Each structure stands twice: as C-alpha cells, then as structure tokens.
Amino acid sequence: MEHDIAKIYEEYSKMIYNYLYCLCFDNTLSEDLTQETFYYATKGIDKFRNDCKIQVWLCEIAKNLWFKELKRRKRTVIVSIESEFGEIGETKEIASEENVEDKFIEKEEKIELYKNLKKLTNIERQLIHLRLTSGLNFKDISQIYKKSESWARVTYYRGKEKLREMYEKEEQ
Questions:
Q1: Which pLDDT score, from 0 to 100, does residue 154 have?
Q2: 48-98 pLDDT, tens digit each
Q3: Burial of 20 (C-beta count, 10 Å sphere; 0-12/13-18/19+)
Q4: I need a labelling partner for 142 at 20 to 30 A (CA). Which of 78, 123, 136, 156 fits?
Q5: What is the DSSP track for 10-42?
Q6: At the topology level of CATH, where does 109-172 sit?
Q7: Cβ(77)–Cβ(29) below 8 Å
C-alpha cells in the first residue's frame, strides 16, 4: 500500500507535537522531535506493515526518539511553565477589564492543571495526554507501550483519579 507522507504529516503532525510536548514540556524540543519523527517515518514508510494505525506507529517513533534524547542528555528536562504562559510581569494589551479577569482565571487554571499533571507519574501523564488530546483509544495506546489494553485502561484511570483527588483537596 502506498502512503502519501505529506498527507500523513498534515494530518498527524500536530498530534505528534502535542504528544512530545507532554513528554518534555519544551516547545523547541517538541518541534525538533516532531520533525525527526516524520524524517524517520519517511525513511521507513515502506516498512510500515499496517498492523496498527499510522498514528500509533508515529507515536512509537516519537516515543523512541524522546528516550534516545533523554539518554543523550543523561538528565531530566526542566519544565518551565513561564515559557508556556509568559513571564509574570509580562503585559499585554487587552480590550476590557472583564476580558483581563477571564484571561487571568483561564491562565491560573492552566497553570494549576500543569502543576497537578507534574505530580502524576510520567507514564500516567503520557496516557492522559494520548487519550484526551490525541484521541487515541486504549488499544492504540497499549500498542505504543507494548502493554495490554487493560494496563492502559488501569493506568489511565489511576492517573485520572489522582487528578480528581488533587482538585478535591484544593477545593477544601
């Protein structure tokens, strides 16, 4: 079966970028690894056997590149929430006072979500991202990690429950 790599890139590059960002929380590195993922996909597209969905295959390439990057660096990537949401003193022109309040609340909620996600294990955080933002089902996720579908479901559920408990504690 012939694959159009340009079409595949167009359809899945954002999903792969988001997945990689979930792993490393670094915009530049996520972009670089996304490009590298599609470079390897282009080189190996003839070897793709259609025994899984194309996005599963791409996520597996991306995951392997991320692990390769970690080994190369031999250190943990430092997460910078400020790089995602801007410096604390940063000013932006906003139309109305109500808009300022809404944007502040939205920004605070995102920061809180990132803080809580950081409290999860790396694998729980990855599974939540793959399930919620990439739209992969548990079977696809299990193929990426070479684990059972039950493992994917249980790990996702545990991570989701931990997040729920964190939010319940904050509300008290």
A1: 92
A2: 877 888 888 898 899 889 888 887 766 433 333 334 444 444 444 434 444
A3: buried
A4: 78
A5: HHHHHHHHHHHHHHH--HHHHHHHHHHHHHHHH
A6: Arc Repressor Mutant, subunit A (1.10.10)
A7: yes
